[in-house]
Predict the 3D structure of the following.
Amino acid sequence: MAFDIDMIKGVYSQMAERVDQARELVGRPLTLSEKILYSHLWDGKSNKAFTRGKDYVDFAPDRIACQDATAQMALLHFMQAGKPKVAVPTTVHCDHLIQAKSGAVADLKVANATSEEVFNFLESVSNKYGIGFWKPGAGIIHQVVLENYAFPGGMMIGTDSHTVNAGGLGMLAIGVGGADAVDVMAGMAWELKFPKLIGVKLTGNISGWTSAKDVILKVAGILTVKGGTGAIVEYFGEGALNLSCTGKGTICNMGAEIGATTSTFGYDASMERYLRATDRNDVADAANEVKAHLTADPEVYAQPEKYFDEIIEIDLNTLKPHLNGPFTPDLATPVGDLGEKAKANDWPLKVDWGLIGSCTNSSYEDLTRAASIAKQAIDKKIKPKSDFGINPGSEQIRFTAERDGLLQIFEEVGATIFTNACGPCIGQWDRSDLKGDEKNTIVHSFNRNFSKRADGNPNTHAFVGSPEMVAAIAISGRLDFDPMNDTLINEDGEAVKLDMPLGIELPVNGFAVEDAGFIAPDEDGSGVSVKVSPTSERLQLLESFQPIENESLAGAKLLIKAQGKCTTDHISMAGPWLRFRGHLDNIANNTLIGAVNAFNQKTNFVKNQLTGEYMGVPDAQRAYKAAGIKTIVVGDHNYGEGSSREHAAMQPRHLGVAAVLVKSFARIHETNLKKQGMLGLTFVNESDYDLIKEDDTFNFVDIASFKAGQALTIEIKHADGTAHTIQVNHTYNDSQIGWFRAGSALNVIKKENAA
Ligand code: MIC
Ligand code: SF4
């Protein structure tokens, strides 16, 4: 039986009426995305059709999911909101704080010991406020959500950018910062700019070495890391119907890598099969009753160009397997072409590791496809050349894979089975094969491959591919290996070829698990006490941010002008720093240490204008803070791409940065800055970025009349006495300006609660 089945039935019982109303209002057939958006309006009903990419709309999501690295801050916030219980079904999943080193059993033990304080905190807060708790080892948040909570036609938010994975089960699932989640937990509306719609038509069928992963690797190559910004991607067509539900999840998952708000597919037989296989006949039956509302109106998919803002068509019959990378997930190369490209770019051809796992590709089907390749290595006597690591997506998947002999195959080829957790995908990887920062290559089935992401080494070239392609490349040990055409020499000296992978969509004997790792909260948690030690280095209760006064914005200094890619990994690194995710002052010591200073091309080396000395970014910023001087950060395109971590906004805010001025923002990060009461601004003229010099001072001349829809003026004073005046845009609406004036969105909630 499904969790929260009454809530799901409640959503379905209103669906027909709400969709019909919306269709009338909009005056034409509806896409699936519009059906879900309009049936989740906070006010129940709208009296106008919304303009895509323009109108801010209040929504009522059905549920919330948080993971351990972001839940700490979100729940520290929620504790301040003064509510006895969360207002909508919420879960916390412990998956990021577990390091991969020697194997699941030993690693989990170490994690439970080193992060005991944090896990206990999360468990007790969950218990107190009615939140479902998935303990360490239960699995990766998005696999666990897909297996237990996602449902067709639903809307959820999650404090992790890959929340979008649940689109594989026909949801609109959206990644947000913790502050957004806290609004909804506290019973308030959730605001989103009504998204644009990108339609992806899949024709033909996937076969052979090509898999669902290759669809999104291809789409990433077409749209690039910012091509999906502000848009929902809706997949349809004959090819979509023939993909498995978890394959659809893979495609939606990596929609985060193109900046898309979310991605989704219409309800179909693959989703029904998956619901039934995961013990949710009740959801499948309920969904079948409202089937027509869980996909677009037929006219839409017949003439998509009339209903979507942009259409992409991919022919699955001719789609080739890809490997994307290094350093960015949108650098797409068909497998056969990679050798030449690698030679031209001096990427190491020898592959040191093949890693299978992450929320993107750790389903039962993924493991079977990869195992079918690994099995051939055994049968054809090929000794794998690279090291091999596997992170199953959930305990249910691991248990079933063990029962069905899949894990044994991996072990036989020398793979280490790590915990059901994020592991190397988030830099939680104690990689012992490198001495220092040697140049090397790894391939993995994850979603992200930003510099330093997996192992902290800037010279690790990481390539993203399907699990079966990762397995094949790891066996060959070479980046230029093309399993469709090349042979390998086996232990008997014979040239052998790998046959194409074979997958099993769902376990023939059903899923099984002994302890899935779920702990339900007490019915009444009011008696539960949550303790945070004042001397803890891992957890720190939050204090309210003070509003940024207009006067303090005269004479602001430049902290850093970041050049090129500046993801949330550059602003607030993960890996070893994950341990401080619940302690704002401690984690602030990593603020922007990965950003490249445009004036010297170095990281973590900026000029402190007060002394003229060069120093680390957090040190310089702490000096400005001590002197009571506000600062600004300047950045390039798609600033803050990547994760939902609100730390990337809270840390600069805590240290006294007032504004972030960039060429363009990634959606979640821009919202996070607003929520924390900061200024997130964009250049009206992108070339004004070039005007900014190392010793600059800024005056926000018209901040007193900060208004929705009106650009702001900044006077830039250079050290040589010259000055420039520039215009900067912003997307704040009236209530968001209210957050800025109050110091943060949370300050507004607190005031309302107190009133
Ligand atoms: C990631 O993949 O970068 C993370 C870690 O899951 C993040 C969330 C976080 O920073 O904790 C994400 O994708 O949102
Ligand atoms: Fe975890 Fe990686 Fe997925 Fe983020 S992308 S949730 S770190 S597995």
In short: The chain has 25 helices and 30 strands. Residues 109 and 530 are 24 Å apart (CA to CA). The pocket of iron/sulfur cluster (ligand 2) is lined by residues 96, 140-141, 160, 162, 358-359, 422, 425-426, 446-447 (CB under 6 Å). The two ends are 42 Å apart (CA to CA).
